[in-house]
């Protein structure tokens, strides 16, 4: 949880807050600068499997420290860069570093400490750390930026690159302290008794006997509704990229840095609630209904952004609408955080859950990688209002395709098990 709150929070969650100051300072276009998120996402997804293999062979703590050093070093590169290629390199290095200690590192530790029971709860609590970090990192970042900026948030520029060196130090120190304590269990440490292991295997065997096994990875690729589902999730990624990465750049043109920081904190709190409640929604109502709810929340959040775009700088109503964005957007985070893992098993079965999860995650990653620069291009040609209208279109179309595909896939499941009453389908 601490890893997600501080090292990961600094490495990834506060980066959008620097977009507007940097664009103003170095006269970049929004579209050209936000390519930083595209390059980071693409390279990070390529590196991730190799990091996963390295964790099986190399000491975990060593890899954790390497990741911390890479991310902290990336902030130093941010601090000395003046041209776009330098910022692109920094973004890539930062993302690769976070893969070591967060993307692959956190699940690796949790899986070792919770080999039988409680793994899902532990993972959920660990990844809630990012939302907790948002609560205090967002306002802290905005206050630090205020001391090193001149002018207002809309037209102001940085007078010093010191904030990047400050956060490099925070990330490095916090990461090394956590690394001193974090570890995987020793071979001699028994995490469960022999009776518990035996009982767990028995329960798992009985569950598997009554579980919908689903399709292999190759079979899934031949399913029409899988492709419609994936295209929908990819289009959702197009919309969510701008909502997650460009919200600060937009709000900076309408509100003070302090107010934007407060909104970020509210988003962090709502994200905690969203992550926790999302698991309940998936278990209780299944994919189609849960994702419909998430889609409605996201559409409302984008409507808040469109509403804000019509009001002048420092309008009080914009602050309230910003709070509305933070709450509705935060409540929907489960749709793209825990959602892919749940949907992979619920829709396509347990036979090739890991492979199918990879397909689903890749679809979203492609959309997300394209979405941020695309939003910048649209905004550059038109304005924020039109860009947000495109975003709401992407999200609406994406969720409609995804929900329809989920319903049809469930229908196919029911047809397959119609003559097998002993099989129990997930929701």
Automatic annotation (TrEMBL):
Domain Major facilitator superfamily (MFS) profile: 1-410
Location of this chain's protein in the cell: Cell membrane
PROSITE patterns: MFS (PS50850)
Entry keyword set: Membrane, Transmembrane, Transmembrane helix, Transport
Protein topology in the membrane: Multi-pass membrane protein
Gene3D superfamilies, per database record: MFS general substrate transporter like domains (1.20.1250.20)
Cited InterPro entries: MFS (IPR011701), MFS_dom (IPR020846), MFS_trans_sf (IPR036259), Proton-linked_MCT (IPR050327)
Name of the protein in its database record: Bile salt transporter
Species the sequence originates in: Lactobacillus intestinalis DSM 6629
Lineage: Bacteria, Bacillati, Bacillota, Bacilli, Lactobacillales
